Amino acid sequence: MFDPLPLLDEPPRERSDAARNREALLAAAARLVERHGVDGVTMDSVAAEAGVGKGTVFRRFDSREGLMGALLNRSETEWQRLVIQGPPPVGPGAPPLERLLAFGHSRMELNLAHAELIRAAGQAATRSYAAVSFTAMHMRYLLTELDCRGDIAILATALLAPLEVVILVQQTRSDQIPLDRITAGWDDLVRRVVCYDGHADPPTSG
Q1: Backbone angles phi, psi at 126, to 5 degrees
Q2: Is the pLDDT of residue 176 over 50?
Q3: Which of 118, 112, 107, 97 is nearest to 178 (CA)?
Q4: Does position 204 have pLDDT exceeding 80, yes or no?
Q5: CB 146 within 8 A of CB 24
Q6: DSSP-based three-state secondary structure for 37
Q7: Alpha-carbon dihedral of residues 143, 146, 150, 155, nearest 10 degrees?
Q8: Which CATH number fits the domain 10-61, given the four candidates 3.90.950.20, 2.60.40.10, 1.10.10.60, 3.40.350.10?
Q9: What would the CATH number be for the domain defined by 63-206?
Q10: Fewer C-beta neighbours within 10 Å, C or N terminus of the chain?
C-alpha cells in the first residue's frame, strides 16, 4: 500500500481518528470548492458541510488560509501518488521522453487548476521543500533516463520554471496565450534540452 509522501511543513502523524476527522474536513472543503469556487468557501460553510462546529475547523487549520494550504498539500500528495504508481504515461511504464512530456503537461494542468486556491491560501500556499524537491528529483531522474548531457540539476530547474503557477497565469490570463501553444512550446524546449547540440534526433517516445 502506498504511503503518502510527507510534506515537511505538515504536522506530525496524527491518531487515526484525528486523521480521519481532518480528512473529512478537507473532503468537505474540496466539495465546496468544486461546487462554488474558492471565493465561495468559508470556514462556516466547511463546518456546515462537514456537520461540525466552526470552532472545530479553526482548531484544525487555524485560519481560512491554513485550510486552503492544507487542500493544496492534499492535492500535491495525490498528484505525487499518480507520478509514482499511477498509470502511464504520467506513471511508470511509458518511454522516458513520453513520460517527461506527460509529467510537464500534468504539472501545468494542476497548477492552473489551483491558481485561485494558491491565491486564497496566501502565505500558507508556499510549497514545502519536500514538494518542490519531489518535482525536481523526478525531472532529474527522467533527464538521466534520457541520457541528457549537461548539468542535469540546472537543466531540470530550467524545465520546471515554465510550469510554475505565476508564469502560467501571466501567460494564459495577462498575455492571452492559448494553453496548447504553451504546451507545444514546452515540448519543443524539452526536446532541445534532451538533444541540446541540435544535430542528433531526439529520442523517440515509442
Answers
A1: -60, 120
A2: yes
A3: 112
A4: no
A5: no
A6: coil
A7: -30
A8: 1.10.10.60
A9: 1.10.357
A10: N
